[in-house]
Amino acid sequence: MLQLFALLTAALVSRPASIPPVESPVAIVGGTLITGLDDTQIRESAVIFENGRIIYAGKLAGAPIPQNAQIVDAKNRWLIPGLIDMHVHLDEVITPEMFLKFGVTSVRDVGSRLVTIQRWRAKHSVPHIFWMGRNIDEGTPSWWGAVAVKGPAQVPGLLDDMVNQGVDGVKLYVNAGPDVARSVIEQAHERGMPVTAHPGKTSPKRLSEDGIDNIEHVSQLFLDLCDASTSVNPGYFAGYKRAAETDLYGPRTKALVATLNANHTAITPTLTVSIMPLDKNETRRYAGWTSVPPRWRNEWKRSYWDFISTKGWTTKQMLAADSACSNYRKLVTLLYRAGVPLIAGTDTPAPNVLPGAGLLVELELMGECGIPPVELIRSATSRAASILRREDDVGAIAAGRCADILVLTADPTKDIKNLHKIERTYHDGHRVKR
Ligand SMILES: [Zn+2]
Prior knowledge:
- Helix content is about 30%, strand content about 20%.
- It starts with a helix and ends with a strand.
- It has two domains: about 90 residues, Urease, subunit C, domain 1, CATH 2.30.40.10; about 220 residues, no CATH class.
- It is globular and about 65 Å long.
- It contains 14 helices and 19 strands.
- The strands form six sheets. Strands 3-2-7-17-18-19 form a six-stranded mixed β-sheet, with no helix packed on it.
- α7 packs across α11.
- By secondary structure, it is α/β, with parallel strands linked by helices.
- The longest helix has 24 residues.
- It binds zinc ion.
- Zinc ion binds next to loops.
């Protein structure tokens, strides 16, 4: 009975909120189609979907448009897949509707409680949620959102429990040592799930060698680039100080980048969470297209957020943090040039990082590291979907996938800032009210 209950729970939570099926098919015609899969752009395109799934995406000429289809004219418009934010904390998000408003139709939650995931999935106006369960630590949990095992022997049991809760993957946290990390990677892969990590006690290079799918935060890669004596969890300012003082152009960087590349380890840089909380003028990055709602301004004043606050910092400290951020950007450039797969994630809702809008800022910041717009779009669509192992569902405008589609009034491949110009959003085939 207990087992049956667990199975039922898993089935319930792993599905997005039940939405009534669309009555008639929709055909978006005449626009320029960017599928998210590769560099090709299809002018004069047609995208047809029905009951939440895409049934055709390609040339308008010869497209099988059903007689009863609702036709949407997309002349002088650009179509891209709904965006995926690969690093969010829904436990702390107070405005669920903001993701869809900014074109984010899927999120990967990296550590919220089951009750939060269930509550969110019961709502209609929220993105698809891919849940990585509670963060896995060893010994003592390093924050309230983590669970800790005593050693590798406890890993299979923990992962079985997490599978029963309906997780879509798992995330290692700061206190997980090398043996636990290796066991989690092996056991998760045996269960068909991807693994990511916020590294601490296990070096990113070691995680990559052990076959991890993904590593969070470019800032954490500095664990492998500085002296071994540096603390694994140095505290907020010390983390910046460590990166500011690191020589990026030595053999350690070369060795790390080569390892990540050889093992196809994807990196989620999360530049926003390093850069945005430092910005005293929080609206600078949002100027001209959105603004920080008073609800969020008040939320981020709570002492809860002091663990990532610059309150009381000296000018010298602020300058050190700035040069750390410039090292983060340089490392992102090196990773990109070497061919290491990069995916887009924000750490929403860290201070100044708004749900949805934060992802557009992340893509701009990644763009400032020299990554071209088409690649940026892939990092937030098809490449993200492949790290989620959900290529059949999300991340591209292609037959069979969810009808998560953005219609833009300007070409995002010319300037990534054109992602601000969303005219229509379809989520599971439903037009999102703006
Ligand atoms: Zn995070």
